[in-house]
Amino acid sequence: MPELPEVEALADFLGEHLVGREIARVLPLAISVLKTYDPPVNALEGRTATGVRRRGKFLDMTVGDDLHLCVHLARAGWLQWKDSFPAKPPRPGGKNPLALRVRLAAPETGGFDLTEAGTQKKLAAYVVRDPAEVPGIARLGPEPLDEAFTEDVFRELLAGERRQIKGVLRDQSTIAGIGNAYSDEILHAAKLSPFKIAAKLTDEEMSVLYRAIGDTLREAVERSRGLAAGRLKAEKKSGLRVHGRKGETCPVCGDTIREVSFSDSALQYCPTCQTGGKPLADRRLSKLLK
After folding, report:
1. Source organism's superkingdom (predicted)?
2. In the chain, what are the domains?
């Protein structure tokens, strides 16, 4: 799933390639992709893209003076920029991963496709007058790279929080933009168990975790800056230390990276760095094995 650093890079890329250009056609090709009907999607046609920004894990493209195309790429979605398209439009349906196409007006011949692999169709596009009309944007918590996200703000968010810290970091209504991969990376950097209860963190652990959030995300943003959309997935994977690296060697201590699997996701961690050398039981409400 694209998270804050990749979506930030996509917003920068679209800012360079899309802003200032007129949209000729918006063609939905998957019935599940459009989540709004008023304004209609064709209201974007004939208008000029005037801005692109990231909101949590959402892309917010301003079109004209008063419309927004907001996109959430979900787990298996992606944005593919095309310098040109075939004259014949694609056909909807079948096993085609193409969900929505945005084609620019002449003399431009390109634009972008939104695609989604797999059978779970969760990629979402919204045409709205105000991004706050999108439920996922309306409930977003603070942005972790904003200057306003101070350590005091972070401590207030965790005060009385009885959930495991892994879940807290992934909750978009608590902190915007962090998903499964970067929460693993942040907790590894902070040397914290993913199952530690947030409210039980010591003052020192809170400070270390706060710094790890900023450092991890800023480093990832810098690695992704300036890359073309097609290179962002590979860059993300190459920069991860523990996430997706089950069975590999921890780059910090040399222990073997382990995994806890859930019904629809998995987390990775280093026992030596994060859990005092003890492996975590591989079930949803795990406790340290005795």
Report:
1. Bacteria
2. 4-138 (3.20.190.10), 151-274 (1.10.8.50)
